Amino acid sequence: MGQGGSRGGGQEKPLKLVPTTTQVKKANLESKWWGLQASGAASAPLCLQGYGQQYAALFERHCGDYRREHQKCMKQGKLDPLEMQKWYPVCGDSFELENACAGALLKALDSRCRAPLDKAAATLESQGQDDARLPKQLEGGVKELRCYAFMIAWEWKGAPGPEADSARAMINHSVLLTGLVALVQRGAEATCMDCAPSEENVLLQRSHASEDGAAVGAADWRWQHAYPKWNCEADVHAAQQDWKDAILDISAAYRQNNTSSDFVTIATEAIQSLYGYDIGPVTFKPTLAVEQPFRPTAQGALSYFVGNNATNDYAGGGGIPEDKGFAIASGDTWAKVLFFNDQISCVGDVALAQGYYFFTNAASKADIGVEYTFVYKKIEEGQLKIIVHHSSLPAPASLPAPASATLTQKGESRNWKVAKASLKPVWWHGPGHFEPSYYGAPSCEERVAATQEAWKYAILNISEAYRQNALYPNYVQLAADTIDKLYNYENGKVLFKPTLAAQDPFRVTFIGALSYFVGYEATAEQGGFPEDSGFAIKGGETWSNVTFENNLTNCVGDVALSQGYYYFTAADSGNITGVEYSFVYKKMKTGELKIIAHHSSLPADQV
After folding, report:
1. Which of 269, 298, 391, 448 is a Cys-bridge partner for 277, taking CB atoms 3.0 to 4.6 Å apart?
2. CA 339 from chain center: how many Å?
3. What per-residue confidence (pLDDT) applies to 178?
4. Per the domain annotation, does 1 fall within a domain?
5. What residues have CB less than 8 Å from 133, skipping those under 6 apart?
6. Listed residue (143, 211, 142, 152) closest to 179, CA to CA
7. Same domain, 199 and 287
8. Residue 307 has pLDDT above 80, yes or no
9. Cα separations (Å) of 54 from 48, 105, 150?
């Protein structure tokens, strides 16, 4: 591997390869590679001129050895590059290293050339100009930036030597090396206006973009699009089995010797293996945690599972005083854990599960049922890691109260049907509105905040419509439009566990959600649930205010996550009810977020 010479007066730093696992090696470039700072001094079009030639030479210098290693493997096995399922198990490691190196190199070039574009665009925006008035030179640079990855791909196709056959076959069959895919995520789902049709076909192979344009590793791309096919439900079941085994192993170790640190060690290793604290934020709302209901750190999770005292005694501190140790049943331990999934859903490399799990106390033999929502992220090794865990005691059967007779006059007939009509303009009134935009601003966090504001004002508008005329179906239609707008029932599965639903706690259908929000009396003919009194109208009392307080917001590709408290103020009494929530949103092609999972629960001390 060449160590470089000089370029632009600065010493070129070598490509630094950092193995991250025994199976997959990732490439990483130091921040000052080339000795270039993204200062914006060079114009973007000039920066991008000759991009393909720059790349070809640099790839050979820094990544050529990895390409040749992959080609050698393919040649020795007499493997056909078009039969990925046959050659990947044999030559997959060298393939991934070559493309990780390519991805790192392109990322460095991209950062060098993107900054001038961003800086110029920001300047124009501050002057009140829009994209339509970009100078022609800058506009050309933007278009070139969108397509340069395909120009490079075409250079590979026409390159001399045996590697051309493999590159040409991959392009012709729309299999783009993942290192290249990483650079065009912001342009995904858009047509490449300035590329040849065959180049555009390559773009269309990657139809979903991550919010922040983060690089997609070869393994990530392989799970979603090629070999081996991800059996999502089977992986979820396996992850749940591992979680169950971990709880029982911790309990067994504690029973065997409760004065040893062994059960704490097992719990620590289980959290490291099963939860994604090592890869990013985790939104964890444990069942019995009240004083500190959210555990965004691994130490907080450990304290919940083994208890405050054990965490302080055996794990270096950080215990939380309220914790008695759920994984050891506060000392009784558990004898059995059973999962019962109500629904499993899969979005890209994210999996969701919602249902009940039951725990059998080893001492009393009593069973406790708990409602859960898990969200898993598939990592490079193929394992699922928990990034959202909301667990709650079921709402008491006495809550909510039976549907109020005040929802309709006695004998009032409701012959009308609820139509999933387009949203009325009044619905979107209030703060939080943003124009849908799939790329750029608003950011993921801004979209989450806007969607939460929209949900809040939907509840308040439904309440207001009910107060104005409880007998007229406007408030029900408004609720129907709200669900159609904010929840994803029309396009796929929605995992919805409402706060006060006890007899039918999971609402997998549109009408089940509508029944919960406006009550059984208003939805009986459409298949509503008798237990529902209408949360959005507070059983007839209505709400006067809703406030969101996010504990944590996280964004994973096209999936956004939020967890925290929302507070509802009763219009008549002024009483405030605090409720714990976890929302999972999917970004649609329009840029809007739609809810694909919603777990809402009363704090444990109120159940």
Report:
1. 298
2. 23
3. 28
4. no
5. 124
6. 152
7. no
8. yes
9. 9, 11, 14
